[in-house]
Amino acid sequence: MATVSVGLARRAAEAHAARGVGYVAAPVFGRVGVAEAGALHVLAAGEPELVDRAQPFFDVIGSRTWRLGELPEQANIAKVLGNYLIACAIQSLGEAVSVAEAAGADPGQFVELLASTLFPGPVYSGYGSMIARRTYQPAGFTTTLGRKDLHLALDAAAGQAVPLPFGELLRDVFDQAIADGRAADDWAAIAERQPR
User: Catalytic residue among 28, 79, 150, 152, which?
Assistant: First the structure.
């Protein structure tokens, strides 16, 4: 259920198969409150009969299981790329909030507008609210973990010979945020790299 590289998922599947044990990758989307409510989104991949065996457990922790294929790494690539998109959204939110605030707009109201109209959902409302309030503790997912997941996405893209130019820029943003002492803050803290 961890967020791991595609390569590690392949090696784990091979190691399990060599010992006659099945392997299902099942990372999840959802922060602590979502997990506590048993409403995670489970990204499952592996042999269908093995996913079927694990499904009762997934039903306890999640609101939906997304069956993404028969190769375990298919779940891991979806998780890594989902987290990559969250990092992209956080960065763009930080930039937009900085401009709005510099122009005299209320950052909280601006984020509420975006999350209620153009970008409904937990990413813009949750992370946008943190950015508008500049509140990054307690961390639901640290900047260090965000950087790790960004690197997983960059590695996965390189393995497919697909460039992620925005990801390369984000690498510098994460590195600078960590150098600025924000390693243990919520990864929304990368927005502080914007002049505000």
Answer: 79
